[in-house]
TrEMBL record, chains A, B:
Full protein name: 3-methyl-2-oxobutanoate dehydrogenase (2-methylpropanoyl-transferring)
Family matches, as SUPFAM superfamilies: Thiamin diphosphate-binding fold (THDP-binding), TK C-terminal domain-like
Signal sequence interval, chain numbering: none
Domain Transketolase-like pyrimidine-binding: 4-180
Keyword Oxidoreductase: yes
Cofactor: thiamine diphosphate
Automatic annotation (TrEMBL), chains C, D:
Function: The branched-chain alpha-keto dehydrogenase complex catalyzes the overall conversion of alpha-keto acids to acyl-CoA and CO(2). It contains multiple copies of three enzymatic components: branched-chain alpha-keto acid decarboxylase (E1), lipoamide acyltransferase (E2) and lipoamide dehydrogenase (E3).
Protein name, entry field: 2-oxoisovalerate dehydrogenase subunit alpha
Required cofactor(s): thiamine diphosphate
Family: Belongs to the BCKDHA family.
Sections of the chain in a coiled coil: none
EC number(s) on file: 1.2.4.4
Pfam families: E1_dh
Keywords carried by this UniProt record: Oxidoreductase, Thiamine pyrophosphate
Amino acid sequence: MAKMNLLQAINNALITEMERNEKVVVFGEDVGHFGGVFRATSNLQEKFGKDRCFNSPLTEQGIIGFANGLAAQGSFPVAEIQFADYIFPAFDQIVNETAKWRYRSGGQFSCGSLTIRTPYGGGIHGGLYHSQSPEAYFAHTPGLKIVVPRNPYQAKGLLLASMRDDNPVLFMEPKRLYRAAVSDVPEEDYTLPLGKADVVEEGSDITLVAWGAQVEVVQQAAAMAREDGVSCEVIDLRSILPWDAQRISESVMKTGRLLINHEAPQTGGFASEIAATIQDKCFLYLEAPIARVCGLDTPYPLAHEKEYMPDHLKTYEAIKRTMNY
Amino acid sequence: MAKMNLLQAINNALITEMERNEKVVVFGEDVGHFGGVFRATSNLQEKFGKDRCFNSPLTEQGIIGFANGLAAQGSFPVAEIQFADYIFPAFDQIVNETAKWRYRSGGQFSCGSLTIRTPYGGGIHGGLYHSQSPEAYFAHTPGLKIVVPRNPYQAKGLLLASMRDDNPVLFMEPKRLYRAAVSDVPEEDYTLPLGKADVVEEGSDITLVAWGAQVEVVQQAAAMAREDGVSCEVIDLRSILPWDAQRISESVMKTGRLLINHEAPQTGGFASEIAATIQDKCFLYLEAPIARVCGLDTPYPLAHEKEYMPDHLKTYEAIKRTMNY
Amino acid sequence: MNDRNHLSKVSSTTSVNIIEDGIVDIPMLQLLNEDGELLKGAVAPELSQDQATRILKTMEYIRLLDERMIAAQRQGRISFYLACTGEEAATTASAAALFEHDMIMSQYREQAALAYRGYTTEQFMNQMFSNRLDPNKGRQMPIHYGDKALNFMTISSPLGTQIPQASGYAYGQKLQGNDAVTICYFGEGAASEGDFHAGLNMAAVLNCPVIFFCRNNGYAISTPAEEQFAGDGIASRGIGYGIKTIRVDGNDALAVFIATQQAREIALKDKCPVLIEAMTYRLAAHSTSDDPTGYRSKEEEAKWRLKDPINRFKQWVIGKGWFDEAEHEAYITKSREDILAAVKTAEKVAVCDIDDLVNDVYDTVPWHLEEQLTHLKTHIKKYPDNYPKTSAEVK
Amino acid sequence: MNDRNHLSKVSSTTSVNIIEDGIVDIPMLQLLNEDGELLKGAVAPELSQDQATRILKTMEYIRLLDERMIAAQRQGRISFYLACTGEEAATTASAAALFEHDMIMSQYREQAALAYRGYTTEQFMNQMFSNRLDPNKGRQMPIHYGDKALNFMTISSPLGTQIPQASGYAYGQKLQGNDAVTICYFGEGAASEGDFHAGLNMAAVLNCPVIFFCRNNGYAISTPAEEQFAGDGIASRGIGYGIKTIRVDGNDALAVFIATQQAREIALKDKCPVLIEAMTYRLAAHSTSDDPTGYRSKEEEAKWRLKDPINRFKQWVIGKGWFDEAEHEAYITKSREDILAAVKTAEKVAVCDIDDLVNDVYDTVPWHLEEQLTHLKTHIKKYPDNYPKTSAEVK
Ligand SMILES: Cc1ncc(C[n+]2csc(CCOP(=O)(O)OP(=O)(O)O)c2C)c(N)n1
Ligand SMILES: Cc1ncc(C[n+]2csc(CCOP(=O)(O)OP(=O)(O)O)c2C)c(N)n1
Ligand SMILES: [Mg+2]
Ligand SMILES: [Mg+2]
């Protein structure tokens, strides 16, 4: 065990896998010598050579296109997109190529060995273009897996699992926790399961679902609600695609209430999928409408960031509204 | 009044607007001399000159980037993306630029005058890359409007409204109706409102929501259900963003049941947003879970297209399930 | 840290020096004249009789296949087809210059390269009839071939995407010490996509052994090259990327062969990309959905028909004394019969199992697709007449 | 229909002619030596005393602003800043060569161009402090300026997106008969984006009067130019697009001025794009979030410090007898005071009304945003302490 922050846990996972599998190749803008603008790839070039860890030219569509080819060839690319806000030039390569490669070739070829890492999310005074949470854009794409860790321990285990999973994984890192979240992380190799939600706190009155940096926000709200005598079950979804509808249903059948929190704008956000599925699976169990506490339907603002964010207070209020419905 | 098919109605709307507003400029791949691969822009170059209707090089990101600049400059670009499946290289320009331009500049500049036209949808033996319905990818993007006509009359009125609306509009044309749908279309100028759903058939037992080519599929199912004595209210959503939640709520408060049908894969499709919103707004009125009849969560297939599609029979069965819940 | 100086190679001037198009002459390599005779001064590449006749036969086979499949499409037997008439030499001779373990990543008009590799008539048909013998499991439109055993990457429709992918593929080959290159085919239209820029630049910077093979056939559907770019074709772009570039007469199989052979050698030896621009002409309609009379004249087509790449090469092969008329006739007749027979066979083969609707989305079928499949099967059982392709198996 | 022949201009050869990088020499226009003296044979552009001193003052002002704002960021007064130290001549002198009604579309390191246009210290501060006087309404990170009155398009962070946009903007100017061009600034890093390719190619084909102005400053954050591209800088790409191209010493204000002036003339007269590559060096850190010691040496920086563009131009202005030491000192002192005062003023100005969180998403506020805003206001009223910037107004 060692104390690591989220960046160190990621760096540690990358080193672990690069040592284990010499076909792992790490690249992206500034990830080489410099180790990435957040330093998640520090020392990799030094340790594994310039062939296996290098800067790419400044082109996200190129990075993912290149990574797709490399994956289809049999290597294990780990491509970094510097900010999730800049992943959109690669949208075609991800949605039309990465995701559909196996299917369209009848399983002859695939990008299963590809992992795309990208920092996402707000709360860092980043404004429109350093704050977005684009998971829902990708969640509508069969063939992709989407994984989001909430802390360093989860990050290492989930990233190792993602790199080994035989499907392309979009691994989204909550950047406001990069240095803020510190926890004990085993130095040895371990993986955590993809596609499985994680019950962070058990409870009986209402189920609260979140992922990434919002898990702790929801926990804060749960603590406030506990003071009022409300027992919250807090679940970290961890995998957005495919997601663990079973675990959420079980919880909602027990609690009768569901709240989902995410940073992205509400309309078309992933909370809508969860709500649509759970109202279907748990119709007779629901005692109140499923609540969504999300970002506003605006571009991500700067001066009004605090007002925009689905914080613990908004979550707490929504818990109360749902309890009192 | 003249009988027109959907393509002719679109062509007619373009001519009407190009005559009225000399700042309208139409371009895209093959739209010039040839008139587009579906011939929606036939004769425009002849009528209005090569400056106002022209072929662009083969680059969707360039087409929309160019169109964004042209819109910000004060012209009225109507950019065609040859198939909606090929809109993804332009995703960054649409989602990060078009949609956020007004907001990020505090209203100093905008792409309000831009219209993006694109044929979408399946049922034409097009397989993975000539069949997609990507509306949900865009519906998560504040700042955009998304409009889908269901027939020639709607197409002309909605396209004219889209070109005049001071917001960027993604105008999605159901290509399997291009020649199949024929109706009476006024030759004069008229517009239909954006953001408003259209009640196609009134009914009292269940509300059926669809858009584009699926409206008639849902109507077929409604006819079958009518035989069983079930009265369906069929609503064409018409605008996906912003959408008419009020009209749908009113209907569901009356019928107590809701079914949404779309071609796109179910997970993260726009039906999830509708379901999430309506379960909240109409919780106490719902007598059964909101049903989604959608494409499967796979890439769009070819040999199994019929099996994949949310056809009238699947819709009819879902109506029965919902009625018998 | 070594000091860097991005100006070190730049000379200077005190007069405003405007670099204009046309500053570089990029001539086109041509070895055979239009009658198939070696041009003065031209040296033919080393090509065995076997290779030469295999190239010739492949070209003739493909022309036949194209004709037959266009007819099959007209008869409504397949939904779509796309011919490469006029461009047979560019794709066949380039494929012939490669090794079998080199990867081919194509656009869609390179069926001749696939045929040269040994794809059989049956295989072509199974793909085009989307039947259960199609390795793509009937999921893609006709002509989207792919074959792992032949190192031919499955085609995908979005244009240009294969270009950066080819760079990545080649990088992997290099990294793993394979003595192989990747060839990446694309049209001059697709070269306008952003992915082209990304792919070529990355290959140059990251030293990828990839051959970028552009078929400049004058058109992208209806859009003529002059509305596609303003520079000197695609070759002139090589300069900007610092990529070694060869322009070649795409209707001259000999020239294409030697250009590709040399490109391959350079790519492997110097670990770098090479760009080839093959000047040719799309004599065919863009596809069976297209009608070129809307955008070009019959006269223009007629001029190019005179440059027929097959006849040109055939004359050369005849000149070499390698051509056996009888054997040839037999081959063509046999091929025609094979094609007709294969059409009849392939169209009778059933489509894949319904399970293949959800297989291969992921490595294994996840819970939600299991659920959707189960649901679908129940539904099909209820309405067997409406799902004739699959109802039999879900009884 | 006219017959087309995409081969008409192509010559032919029988030998395998490999076009290599370095086949064209693209020299760099330089008029002043590093001491600010006119080089032998160089002819200075016509530049009035007023223009020259305005250029000089703008450069000095911007250097000062950069220094002060980096300090302000260190003090935690603003969250982010990005300096253009070392590149002042490239942006100032190019802006000086334009007309006021020409549109400027910039990347983010062109504050000098904006200052030259007349953006005031107060305006800079309002943007950087995201206060209610910021025309962007405090929605974007510091340095994302924009000003409609000055024809300076609001900056957006995604790199390269402004390149095809500038082509479109210029096309609109041409179509409406405005006697104006668009200048589009970008870094050599951004030139790797697919949008660069699309923008330049479209401008060339569609005859857009746009000046593509690349600041090749050797780095994209930590990535040196040699890991960004393998060709001869960005200028060599002009050839591939058929775009007239000028390479210029970006640290020589005179050279930049004349190059841009000529580019503008060509663009307007010939209705076509012109590419300028200005060779310079990013002496600054990439931004206040960056620390260049991780990727380059102090020695390298020191070498470039000797090429300081401000001093060089200043010496020339002095040589012309146009420099008044006292006036200059006064200007600098006054500017420093203005900046300090403006910081103090701007940081006290409140942020925009809460309504501006939902304004400008659309032309008018749609129902769902009205709903969300109402809801938010109720919430803020309940927890005023947690939303200190806005609670006062929703009481
Ligand atoms: C991204 C994308 N945009 C548009 C299309 C539609 N499309 C198919 S082929 C084609 C023309 C391609 O021309 P070119 O690259 O020159 O190849 P050629 O057909 O001449 O062989 C177009 C526009 C597509 N398949 N993909
Ligand atoms: C699409 C996109 N990708 C990545 C980034 C992150 N980023 C910001 S600046 C920068 C480097 C830009 O270098 P260059 O274009 O040379 O301009 P310079 O900073 O040298 O002026 C990067 C990678 C971005 N803003 N947008
Ligand atoms: Mg072509
Ligand atoms: Mg730079």
